[in-house]
Amino acid sequence: MISISDLELLELIRNPETKEKGYRLLVEMYQKRVYGIIRKMLIIHEDADDITQNTFIKAFKNIENFQGNSSLFTWLYRIATNESLNFLERKKKRYFFSIEDHLETMSGYLDRSGLITGEEIEKRLHKALLKLPDKQRLVFNMRYYEDLSYEQISQITSTSVGALKASYHHAVKKIEIELHTE
């Protein structure tokens, strides 16, 4: 795959003659990373796949509004995280999940899922993550798995660095407690 800058990609997308090629390149460049982010939040492949598609559809519809204040990936990341959080909220409301039922369902899915390599500690970590509030889990995933700086997370989530640090700290403490009680 050829390497292309955000600026070159945007030029392709904004040119009517190369728009389709630009969109294809955008998907090729970012689909795996976007899917990975969403999968960590939603756990279930089919849900993550649907939300990944929704993310790119939303990006395509709103590419003209992209102002270049961040990288394209940061912009896509913001769309993906918002779509993931909205999906989780809709799912909880639609099925009237109590939080305990939802956690039990997702935890059972982790036991059967190919997502986890089989290492018990990894399964325990994922189960502990499911018990976090969605936004804390999101911040933890961005910091721990994606190795993003607080400044990058702040750009993506429009949240202050101080609030993100506190959220991450609380998430880590909850995970530690959860892992030590199992």
Automatic annotation (TrEMBL):
Protein origin, superkingdom: Bacteria
Entries under Pfam families matching the protein: Sigma70_r2, Sigma70_r4_2
GO BP term, pick one: DNA-templated transcription initiation
Keywords, ordered alphabetically: DNA-binding, Sigma factor, Transcription, Transcription regulation
CDD domains named in the record: Sigma70_r4 (cd06171)
A GO MF label: sigma factor activity
RNA polymerase sigma-70 region domain segment(s): 26-93
Domain called RNA polymerase sigma factor 70 region 4 type: residue spans: 124-175
Similarity field: Belongs to the sigma-70 factor family. ECF subfamily.
Protein name: RNA polymerase sigma factor
Phylogenetic lineage: Bacteria, Pseudomonadati, Bacteroidota, Cytophagia, Cytophagales
